[in-house]
Amino acid sequence: MADSNRLNTAVIYGSVRRGRQGIKVARFVTNKLKERDHIVTLIDPNEYRLPFLDLMYKEYGPGEAPDAMEKVSQILEKAERRIELLRGVDADGKPIVEPLADDGETTLDEKASSRSRRRSRPSHGNTGRGN
Q1: In the beta sheet, which residues pair with residue 12?
Q2: How buried is 64 (Cβ within 10 angstroms: 0-12 exposed, 13-18 middle, 19+ buried)?
Q3: Within its chain, how far is the Cα of 74 from the centroid?
Q4: Half-sphere exposure (CA, 13 Å, Cβ side) for 128?
Q5: What is the pTM of this model?
Q6: Which of 24, 28, 106, 120 has the fewest beta carbons closer than 10 A?
Q7: CB-CB contact of 8 with 78 (8 Å)
Q8: Which of 6, 74, 72 is nearest to 43 (CA)?
Q9: Where are the beta strands (DSSP E) in 2-45?
Q10: What is the CA angle 98-101-106, rounded to 5?
Q11: Cβ atoms 13, 42 nearer than 8 A
């Protein structure tokens, strides 16, 4: 940390949907941290225009990752803290958050299967999909 009172923080927002509302929260959090003199970068996929990602960053060879992915990777590498905004809540009102870090133990097929199981559960009137 450059200054003991300043944190380098990445605020990560994931929605690209039209009419998304969560971006307001992401900007609010970003502004509040800046007001406290922290170094803050908002990672908004509408701004960074990441392509369809069929590979993780670590699966690309040196210099092969898309430019936008490389920029985001550099931001995350420098960040001392990461703030992930919730993507929704489940039928019980619990937050839906997936860990940012890849534990390396789950294959892409296992993740897709898990996602499919979650999506096929009854929603009880709540889709669990947030902005």
Answers
A1: 43, 84
A2: exposed
A3: 15
A4: 15
A5: 0.56
A6: 120
A7: yes
A8: 72
A9: 8-12, 39-43
A10: 75
A11: yes
